UniProtKB/TrEMBL annotation:
One of its GO terms (cellular component) is cytosol. GO terms for biological process: DNA recombination; DNA repair; galactose metabolic process; meiosis I cell cycle process. Keywords: ATP-binding, Disulfide bond, Isomerase, NAD, Nucleotide-binding. InterPro entries: DNA_repair_Rad51/TF_NusA_a-hlx, NAD(P)-bd_dom, NAD(P)-bd_dom_sf, P-loop_NTPase, Rad51_C, RecA_ATP-bd, RecA_monomer-monomer_interface, Ribonuclease_T2_eukaryotic. The active site is at 895, 973, 977. Pfam families: GDP_Man_Dehyd, Rad51, Ribonuclease_T2. Pathway: Carbohydrate metabolism; galactose metabolism; Carbohydrate metabolism; hexose metabolism. GO terms for molecular function: ATP binding; ATP-dependent DNA damage sensor activity; DNA binding; ribonuclease T2 activity; RNA binding; UDP-glucose 4-epimerase activity. This is Meiotic recombination protein dmc1.
Amino acid sequence: MPVNGDSPLKRVLVTGGAGYIGSHVIYALQQTRRYKVISIDNNHNSSPKALERVTQIARSSLPANPSEKDKDSAEVDAHTCDLTNPHAVRKVFEQYGKAGIWGVIHIAAYKAVGESTEIPLTYYENNVSATISLLQIMSEFDCTRMVYSSSATVYGTPPVIPIPETTRLQAHSPYGKTKVMCETIIEDLCSAEPKRWRGLSLRYFNPGGAHPSGLIGEAPIGRPGNLFPLLAAIAVGRVENDLKVFGNDYPTPDGTCVRDYLHVLDLASGHLLALDALADDSTVFNNCPSEGRYKAYNLGKGKGMSVLQIVEAMRKATGFDYKYEIVGRRRGDVPDLTADPALAEKELGFKAAVDLDTMCRDLWNWQSQNPNGLSIMVRRTTSQSAPVASRAGSPSGEDFEEAPYFDSVDELQQHGINVQDILKLKTAAINTVSGVNMTTRRQMLKIKGMSEAKVEKIKEAAHKILGSSFATGLEVQEKRKRVLTISTGSKSVDTILGGGVMSQSITEVYGEFRTGKTQMAHTMSVVAQLPPDMGGASGKVAYIDTEGTFRPDRIRSIADRFGVNGDMALENILYGAFLTFDECRMLTYHRRSTSFHSEHQMELINECSSRFAEDKDFRLLIAILMTNQVQSDPGATMTFVAGGALKPIGGHILSHASATRMFLRKGRAEERVAKLVDSPDKPESEASYKLDEGGPCNNDRAYDACTASAYTIKVASSSDWCVGFRASLALSAWSHRNICVAMLKVMNVLVRRAMDVRFTLSVLNTCPDASAAHGMMADVVTSSAACASSGSSIQEDDTFVAAMGNMAVALVLVTIAFVARARASLVFSLPNTFPNISACISQPLTYSCENTSVIQNTCCSPTPGGLVLQTQYWDTYTGLEKKGQLLPKNSWTIHGLWPDNCDGSFDEYCDLSRQYDPDPSPAVLPDGTPVPAYKGPGVDIFVEEFGRLDLLSYMNKYWVSQGSPNADFWAHEFSKHATCTSTFDVTCYGSDYKKHQDVVNFFDAVVRAFHKYPTWDMLAASGIIPSNKTTYSLNQLQNALKAQTGSIPYLGCGFNGTVLQEVWYFNHVFGTEQFGQLKSVDSTTKSSCSSTLGIHYYERNPTSEHEVKLLP
């Protein structure tokens, strides 16, 4: 069906939109706000994450209060399909109807010169045949404008340098020839139908660099084939430092090949100009020698640089010492390819303006932040609140850590295996080096085109990459530290498993019908998406169904139990139905393919064979749960038959493929029993659990999970009559335990006040054996009279029975109303250690500085005032570089978290018993009280005592002092500011308080607030990066930050307001400062930066020393 309505934006289709050039072209299109971008990409050598990031950049650059048109221009309609599949491409065009797409920028192509000489037919099919097919579909849908991405290789060995467009096309390599062919086809089509078709070919020279934000850049798979990305990959350590320079005997200044390099954003701007030239009112075609409206332009800088010059420029940008070897010339290379861009400059207005140093700097900025390309970005991000299942794979905690390596078969190219043989492996569904290692030589010889010599060479290369299978015990112990445990949904079952289903191994669960195998698989499909502190793994799930028992509705019910969004939970599940052995075998290959990515943390296999499970081609952190079915064996009647007289049916009980085996059996009613049968490190043991709408749970779930739908409120009379009511509130213990505690405490009070008679409110679970052994809840339930869990009753008349029934109804309604209020109240952000948690329910449900009533409980909300300033520095040196105290790359540093009384006033050093500052400033308070210097151990020791080495490491990197040890700076910030914030008062922690817990909580809160405001990234998203040459206006800086936060922070400048030095983000707080939510608001302090002069945002060098002197 065509897209409804006429878009106010011109729709432009970009093929290869997720690639390096394509993503930057999309960025350029989005910045105009004139186009609606449609992307087609098969993700063969790209990632859809590039489109997510370029959209992120586009959204961040929208003006305040953008129109719907502007918002639409920042989004991308992304389609994953291959141009060699005309049916799939036609379906894309059908979505927009006849003439629904205004023009096409055709970038998608294979592009490696050397590779094209080895597999020419593949290049002709992908580059030429696909282009013909695309043009035919465009014609069918009245889309007759094309900007074609050509290449300077069409010139072959040019007779004159620089190269004008009039040079004869005589490409040497198959790749270059595919470009010549496509240009010819487009030109012929424009000549044949001059009234319909318009076409421009852009002959790229050598693009480099990346978007200055570091969010998008070139991310080739395997060893890069082009010079710039290869040098970046070597510097970041992704490939070996074994650079080969092909020839030093060319007729060039230093004997190495010369190429014309231009920044990728300059190249992207050329596409915009070309697109404008295809408009009906364009004059570009007025001087065409023929009737056909077609032209070709060079996009280059007009200045050549040699290979060794590029190496030196990258050495300067990265600080890396490249080692290179001069080898013989490479077939297909030509000595010099420098553009003559005069025609493009004259007719299109094109100009490649970015210099080589900036190109190298932007490239290194991208590569250093993304060492593994788009698989994961090693940088800070704003924290996400639990328990909502995030879009897959966002690691929990404050930093992204580099994911375990997923050994793509493309890595073989670095060890001498040619691309053609790697493609043969992929055709046989061997997509990882581990897959090569586990495939026998005999099986590999069955692959078409594989000889014994090739197989031996490939095996040897795989062995080099994977290394020896032997490891020391200490190495194994280190690897085991990365084991994840994923909850089954029942804490009692988790306990016998040692915390849950573990990664790096296969867990087999077997049992008869209706023992909970499938329910456990469904439950873990949701749990695996939750953060680790909630029993999950922050990942996606692959659910492999061999019985057709997967039910999305069950996922939704379970998601409700854990308080997550059902749609999001389903989106994060990769489902596959494989009902036969052959399909299981094919799935073995499928799992190795690109559909199973490194972000998947859990694999669930419902009833499949041992041969399938024994394929251990899975990622290091993946946990595998397999279920198998058994039935009672009527022939095994003797009591001593091993295994409980059971035999396998739907699958095969796994041989030695499973590290852990658990047997499930039925108990009484809905009770189930799990028995740990086999484990390498756990004793044989049993646990009981229950199945309900939320999946497996404990029999004592009323106390453990605090799920109101499992409660029945009962009262009794002489006839043992009970009135039961259920309230479906779907509260989970992990996300709402605090509310449950407060709710039951308040209900207990309500009962005692409302009833003159002795009355028991029994919160009973429908599971048997509900126990009050859980001390946390035991004091919540009254124990005075009737209908306790034992079923005892008292003799009362019918009036009392009716009163009890009415009271039960009232309590259900109170519960519902209470929880609705509690979910939006301050109690939601407090830990159970707060002794007056229930009192927080009555606190104002507003942000600090916005409340109109007096805060009664100062532990629930910061007082007085509650305006909080998250402050950051931009320094260029620390003064302690020689001691290793350096500033972080591409990041501002933390100053602190300051309290303000909402009126510009503030207090300092409010509790001298918690004064840890060795050099207090001020040393005397306004009332004349001296602030004594602290002489004890540093606050870093406090952090170590709590085992928070992760926090300590982060603070040492991002909370950096100038001229003094970091710990002294942290102590100053806590003592001066945190002691004046009421929610950090020791009394608020109750009897469970541990000494210095408030200090660690403050440091956590500071880091959390710092994550909310990644200043370097936010400025870079608007193209504002440190520079010793460029200056920025105050409006530019403020608008860039407002685009990201929605409010204007305070910017502090020195040197007469011309040097940017600090930023303060103003916030109101909902709840406590350490656990609550921050809302960004406009600064109440006027900026000290000049509103008329340019403002310097200076660079740092690798040792964080300032490179230029500050201007007076």
